[in-house]
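Appendix C reproduces, verbatim, an entry submitted by the partner laboratory led by Prof. M.T., so that reviewers can inspect both the input and the predicted structure.
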Amino acid sequence: MKSLLFFVFIAVCAGLSRCSSNPEHDHDHDHVSSGELSDSQPSDHSMNEDSTGIRLSLLRKQPFAFTVRSGGRIIADNKDVVIITAKSSGLVRFSTDYLYPGVTVSGGQTLFTVSGENLADDNTELRLLQIKADLDKASVNFERAKKLVTENIVTEEHYLSIKNEYEKALNEYDNLSATSGTGGNIIKGSDKGYIRDIYVTEGQKVTPGQPLASIIIGRNLILRADVSPDNLAILPEIESANFKVGYSDRIYKTSELNGRKISYGKSTGENSFYIPVYFRMDHDPGLIEGTFTEVYLIGKEINDALVVPNTALMEEFGKLYVYVADEHDHFIKRYVITGNSDGEKTMILSGLSENERIVASGAYLVKLSRMSASAPAHNH
């Protein structure tokens, strides 16, 4: 009997010992503990991630430059587009059968000839012959007047009048003969480049100053980015741009093409609702003038900005917030005021401080966990 009582006493003591080592809590936390979502313990590393997809980030001030995404286009620099014009009236003739847009031309190469041919009016060759005859006559009269004035046979006024007629005829002849000959007005390219447009056809009658073709020299290119007017306030802070064209995977950077911002529009165009921003850069053979681009405008870099990944931001009734991990590894909702973004990170203006830990990714999982923890119990 004594032995039986001894074994019962031992069993009761063991049960009490188990109960004291595993006490049940009778209260709940208002915040979700990071331990409930992760087996990993907080560390001094800037980021740590557990098997549930929750990733923490330690906030540090860092260099940051915002970006603005927009569309754009590659255009030629105004100084690199040369317009070839007719110097006289007549019928235009192409110097070769291969004058088409895209064809490379060299400096001094003959491109067109404008001649009067059988035209009754605006005949350059006929006009040149007439001026040459007038010049010959004026030259003879001038030489005779020089002798007569020294002998006081003609007055000084008469001599100066004859001299004036001779100089006018000489200047007119020199001007016309510089570009025209017996075969007509010869028109040459001014520099090496490629033909952008041809404005005339073979045999077309042209007048002085009429454009015949345009040539792109190709020293510079212009990137024009079209920006929405609601970004007008930040345009002065834009310093460079990265862009892509549809036919290449390469990301071009104005900073690598010796580029710089030259201006931005103060109003929208007649046929556009956007504000243009212009960058001049060196010519690159991989860029085709006229191509549309996807542009990322880059603002001035800030050295000590506080930024969070865009994956950390959550929205509630139009306000943004993040989850902050406190010293007890509980997640606390914190509303923030944000600034500009670069597409991956967003600048925080207020609401967070340096060295705080936030949920960098997996914030939606934390939100679901909080909703589940705050749901009322189901009673049968």
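DSSP finds five helices and 27 strands in the chain. Additional entries are available on request from the coordinating office.
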